[in-house]
Amino acid sequence: MPGTAATALEGHRGVRIAGTGVGLAGRVVTNEDLAARVDTTDPWIRQRTGIHQRRYAADDQSLHSLSLTALRNALDDAGLRGADLDLVIVATITPAMACPSTAARLADAVGATPAGAFDLAAACSGFVYGMNLAAASLQTGMYRHVAVVGAEVLSRHVNPDDRRTCILFGDGAGAAILSADQADHRGVLHQSMGSDGGKWGSLYMPRRESDLPEGIDASDTGQPGWNGAYDTLQMQGQEVFKFAVIKTCDMIEQSLAATGLRPADLKLVIPHQSNQRIMATAADRFGLPPEKMYINIDRHGNTSAASVPLCLEEVRRSGRVDEGDLVLFLAIGGGMTWATSLWRL
């Protein structure tokens, strides 16, 4: 895939997922709830997205509180303390403030100071970006334990009157503790990260009129890619859908080709939960049975950077994967960005 940073290293091992945790948003919002407010129906949403409900942060919840719950749960699961962490990475596009970073505040809250800490903004691809960076840093021997958090409060960044976006997005947080491991059979077999900034106008969040893409008339709120509300997600749905279908299939093919694996070798694919039709198309393209493409979009909606760790927590808790299994994580997000991480657990 030209222009994509991809790595397939023989012996790229020695990293394990030591613990996971989630912070669930407190308010369940059904399709019927949205249908009472905008021109839509439960069957319409289900057919086009696969979403039955999504969760919104309660009034007393914030990105920080959801992230902190997820990180504390992940530390408990790993049997570690905050002081054991060497680095904290938070993937989000909905931070409470630009500075300080969410990661720095989390590190302080769990007693990880003076661990390194930073936020990264790769939209829906963010958590997989974070996994790749964490795994690479652990491979160098520089660190022993790295926390990767994906968290969003997208309900506070959608126009509630825009049915093109308000039906899709939800809130939540998930965290994973990645640790160095002496076992040579564990770790990342292949990873990739890519972007195409030329397509940024397909999915973006403007703060002012000067942020709008060329050709967008700020007074025309009915045009594709503009709903009239600043600091909310703007999306050209058809463009994003077409891009995501093609790129998802490309990423799976690239990961398999780089490692010499077949689709049947994968125990599970954990994709960003963008749209059930995108995931079903990719599964069909590679002959993957439905149970190998993990889906929870029906219960959580699209939670951007939180979706992959929310899936990962459910997979581990349900016993869907065992040590030695091959699991492919992948995501596509605004930017446009994309990333894969193929693991032997």
Automatic annotation (TrEMBL):
Its main location: cytoplasm. Catalyzes the condensation reaction of fatty acid synthesis by the addition to an acyl acceptor of two carbons from malonyl-ACP. Catalyzes the first condensation reaction which initiates fatty acid synthesis and may therefore play a role in governing the total rate of fatty acid production. Possesses both acetoacetyl-ACP synthase and acetyl transacylase activities. Its substrate specificity determines the biosynthesis of branched-chain and/or straight-chain of fatty acids. GO terms for biological process: fatty acid biosynthetic process. The lineage of its organism: Bacteria, Pseudomonadati, Planctomycetota, Phycisphaerae, Phycisphaerales. SUPFAM superfamilies: Thiolase-like (SSF53901). Residues 118-197 form the Beta-ketoacyl-[acyl-carrier-protein] synthase III N-terminal domain. Its EC number is 2.3.1.180. Pathway: Lipid metabolism; fatty acid biosynthesis. The last Arg residue of the ACP-binding site is essential for the weak association between ACP/AcpP and FabH. It catalyses: malonyl-[ACP] + acetyl-CoA + H(+) = 3-oxobutanoyl-[ACP] + CO2 + CoA. This is Beta-ketoacyl-[acyl-carrier-protein] synthase III. GO terms for molecular function: 3-oxoacyl-[acyl-carrier-protein] synthase activity; beta-ketoacyl-acyl-carrier-protein synthase III activity. It is found in: Cytoplasm. Belongs to the thiolase-like superfamily. FabH family. The gene is fabH. Homodimer. It comes from Phycisphaera mikurensis (strain NBRC 102666 / KCTC 22515 / FYK2301M01). The active site is at 124, 272, 302. Keywords: Acyltransferase, Cytoplasm, Fatty acid biosynthesis, Fatty acid metabolism, Lipid biosynthesis, Lipid metabolism, Multifunctional enzyme, Transferase. It is an enzyme of class 2 (transferase). GO terms for cellular component: cytoplasm. Residues 256-344 form the Beta-ketoacyl-[acyl-carrier-protein] synthase III C-terminal domain. It holds the Pfam family ACP_syn_III.
